[in-house]
Design brief:
Length: 286
C-alpha cells in the first residue's frame, strides 16, 4: 500500500489527485465557477447591516465558517468589534479575504486592506471579491507566504479538498508535488506598501512564529498593531517546534494575550488547546 501510494504521488500530478480525492467538492467548485462565468453571484448577509456580494464559491467554500462554527463566529465578531474608522489591516493567510472585506466595510471609506496568501486560487478569488464589492481601490492583494525572511519556500497545494490552501510539506511529499512560493515579511510589507497596519490577522497553519519574527520592527513601535492570531499548537508540535516560543516572543514585544471574549488568558490554557484563536494587544493599548 505504501509503495502504491508513493507511486501515485510520483506518477499522478498533484492537481489531478486533489480533484479526485474529493469528487463532491470538485464538482461543487466546477459548478460554482460555471455559474460565475455566466454572471451569477450571491448576496449574503454576513452580519446585520452588512451584506456581501459573493462569487458562488466564496460562501460555500469559506465564508460559511464565520456563520456556522462557534469558535470562528466568536473570533470574527471580536475582530469586527475592534475595527475602527480608517483601519489598516494586514490580512496574513487571507484565504478568500473575508477579514479584509470586513475591515473595509466597518472601517469606512478611508480604511485599507492588504491581503497576503500563497495560494493562486485564493489570490484570484480575493481579486474577484474585491471587484464585486467595489473596493479594489482600497484593497492590495499579494500572492506570497509571510515568513521571517525574504526568499522562497517549498509549499504543497491541498487543492479544492481544502478550498485552495497551500500548506507546509511533510516528509512524504515528493519533489514534484512542491511549489516554490515567494516569501516576504511583515516589516518588508510595511516598506513596500508604505502602510502601517492598525490590525494584523494571522492564520498561517503553524507558521505563526515566523510571521511574528519577521515583524519585530513593526511590532516594537509605540503604535504597534492589534493582533488576531490563529495559533495551531498541534501543527507546530508535529513540525518539531514549540508554541511556547511564539508566546515568549509576544511577551518580549510587550504584548498581552486575550481570548476572543476579551478575558485574559494564561499561557498554559493556550498551550493545552490544539488550536486556539487569540487577540494580542500591546501594553500601551490596554
Amino acid at each position: 500500500m505504501a509503495t502504491a501510494k508513493r507511486l501515485a504521488r510520483i506518477l499522478v500530478p498533484r492537481e489531478v489527485r486533489n480533484w479526485l480525492r474529493s469528487p463532491t467538492n470538485s464538482m461543487g467548485w466546477a459548478w460554482a465557477q460555471a455559474k460565475y462565468l455566466v454572471g451569477a453571484k450571491h448576496v449574503v448577509q454576513m452580519r446585520p447591516g452588512w451584506s456581501l456580494i459573493c462569487h458562488p464559491a466564496a460562501f460555500r467554500f469559506a465564508y460559511f465558517s464565520q456563520n456556522d462554527d462557534p469558535d470562528q463566529v466568536a473570533e470574527f465578531d471580536c475582530f469586527i468589534k475592534e475595527i475602527t474608522p480608517g483601519a489598516v489591516l494586514f490580512d496574513i493567510g487571507a484565504h478568500f479575504g473575508l477579514f479584509s472585506l470586513a475591515a473595509l466595510h466597518y472601517g469606512g471609506a478611508n480604511s485599507i486592506a492588504l491581503a497576503v496568501d500563497p495560494s493562486p486560487i485564493a489570490a484570484q478569488l480575493i481579486k474577484k471579491q474585491a471587484r464585486l464589492n467595489g473596493v479594489s481601490n482600497r484593497f492590495h492583494i499579494v500572492q506570497a507566504a509571510v515568513s521571517d525572511r525574504m526568499g522562497w519556500q517549498s509549499m504543497v497545494s491541498v487543492g479544492i479538498l481544502s478550498s485552495g490552501y497551500f500548506v507546509p510539506p511533510s516528509t512524504e511529499h515528493t519533489a514534484s508535488e512542491l511549489t516554490q512560493t515567494r516569501t516576504t515579511t511583515l516589516d518588508r510589507l510595511v516598506e513596500e506598501f508604505n502602510l502601517l497596519p492598525t490590525h494584523v490577522k494571522i492564520d498561517v497553519e503553524g507558521y505563526e512564529l515566523g510571521v511574528i519574527s519577521g515583524g519585530v520592527k513593526l511590532l516594537s513601535r509605540d503604535n504597534a498593531p492589534l493582533l488576531f492570531i490563529e495559533l495551531h499548537n498541534e501543527i507546530v508540535r508535529q513540525n518539531g517546534g514549540s508554541p511556547t516560543e511564539m508566546l515568549r516572543l509576544l511577551r518580549t514585544l510587550s504584548y498581552e494575550i486575550f481570548a476572543t471574549n476579551g478575558d485574559r488568558i494564561d499561557d498554559q490554557e493556550i498551550l493545552n488547546r490544539p488550536l486556539i484563536r487569540i487577540v494580542a494587544k500591546r501594553n500601551s493599548r490596554l
